[in-house]
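Troubleshooting: if your tokenizer reports a length mismatch, compare your output against this known-good record of 295 residues.
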Amino acid sequence: MIFLVISPLKDFWKVILSEPAFKVNLYDSYGYAARFGWMGFSGYRSTIDCSLGIVFANYLYSRKDKLTSISTLLYFTFLFMCFLGNMFYARTGIIASAIVMILGIFAYHNIKPKYFIIFIFCGISLVLILLLLRTKIPFIDEWLTWAFKPFYYMITGQRETGHSSMNVIKDRMLFLPEIATLMHGDGYFTDPITNLYYGRTDLGFMRQLLFWGVPGLLLTYGTTFFSILSMKKDIVLNLMLAICVVIFEFKGDMYYEVLPVFFLLGICNKSSHIIKKSDYCIRRINTQLNLGFFD
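Known-good structure output:
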């Protein structure tokens, strides 16, 4: 948001980061003007992080113990900042974060009405500020048009025309591979000649099919969802993470980004259970020793 409003700061930060030429050229493309943050180019990977941030903020706010829970102020700050980030980085993240945010709020929390009012007021204020700024700053005007175009067509019932994301997915990226490809894949993730994604598809599950077929696809997603279930026996948390995986894999691939994190959290969860059982056994043995059961 700061870089959109203060263009000289954005240009200065580009020089500091020394980004490659192809990334710098992307900023002049439609829909990419706002995909810039303190880390430089911020796209699909950044919107995944923001969406997962909303998921874990919901979970931490639902915790009852003081060690792992977060305050209401910090919770709403997380929601606001992560959702705002998704509005800049990718429209897929807007959809994913909106769904998991609503699901988490209604499934987990009994939040006081005043916090909802404050949250809505902040959101409305931000929208009014952006509408005012779009008449003064071209970047913001382009960003708002890009970010809210799908919602405009959805609300009005009109069909999006031209080279929109959904039209490109339907017409070019979604297709049925040959039987041999479905059985064992072609072994390519990127095209060896053009260096573009093999099959020129952005769909995560299509990339899996083309790379190593149905067996590899089942292994990939089976491992991903197993790691989600191993993290915590919390239906809401598991559902929010699964929703994120499904949505993001439809527009790109994310499993290899989140799988190590899910595995690590699953191991931590299992370890905590082992430690708790060990502590319980030790306490029980000490109690029996003190009572003289082993005399």
